[in-house]
What does this fold into?
Amino acid sequence: MRKICVVITARPSYSRVRSLLHAIREHPGLDLQIVVAASALLSRYGSTVKTIEEEGFHVDRSVYTIMEGENLLTSAKSTGIGLSELATAFYDLAPDVVVTVADRFETIATAIAASYMNIPLAHIQGGEVTGSIDEKVRHAVTKLADMHFVATKNAAERVIKMGERPDTVFTTGCPSIDVVQAALASGSSGFDVFERYTGVGPVFDLSNGYIVAIQHPVTTEYREARLHIEQTLNAITKLEHPTLWFWPNVDAGADGTSTGIRSFREIHAPQNIHFFKSMSPEDFIRTLDKSDCIVGNSSVGIRECAYMGIPAVNIGSRQAGRDRGQNVVDCNYDCDNIAAAISAQVSHGRLDPDHVYGDVGAGTRIASLLATVALSIEKRLTY
It folds into this structure.
């Protein structure tokens, strides 16, 4: 039986691999190990670890790696801490395969630790293009990985062009689509978002529609993070459209983004915005499903919302170059441009589903491959 160690380091990482965790746990030839690290352990970023445990998964190791500051220096140092601490976790758990997700600084720490310990590395969501340091990290992880589970045909072609063997590259689709399918199949009604998740800000009527906003800092533009978030806040306040706003991630510039939100909230007290730290993956999808539009720069607008047909306003360069569906409109960091794009997307309404990131079943497909693909590295460590 192969021991598969999945490393979850942030709120989006869990959503991306949730269906895979279920599929690994249910597979007779696989033994699931879960390592939770970085911002997924921190309460100010939603305590994703609590959601993981509440949904019935056993966390084998909790690895604290985040250095306070949310700037370039602390990101680099947190990567080093993660490399050191994850290596210890892998030594203790002795997995046959380590699975890492996407393009974060914690992802490359995971990849380096596994590679130097001669543990085969599986990478999910490689081969994609974005407009920040994330792309460098993603491609670096691709070169360290032994198995590549990519979401799109274009991504597969890029990975192969980077020199990876075609027989190690599998176009599985994105496992986050499985979360969408599960959430929508179980119904999108039946809970009050304000009652279940509390948050901060006024409570208002959502029956006539609302916006979902998620805007993260861009690591290559981290000094402008506060200015960027203020432009979006001003645009949404100006429109007076009910808005559910979700907290940013832990990337460099997050302090500027968070400070900008808090300052704006205290000075302007917007009556149409309610702020949340986090939600369970399925509740978040149900909330998205009722929305008129998603605004910001999260990949959710590119991936899940394409499949759901939800209009998205993508702001700035964070998702530049990424494959996208017809639901996305791009704009720059200008209050008036953002407001105009939101108005146009809300007026347009829902679109037909776009399967640019695949269909349901990615988690099961990846689990089956993890059980059957020949492992290319002969582990030489004695645990």
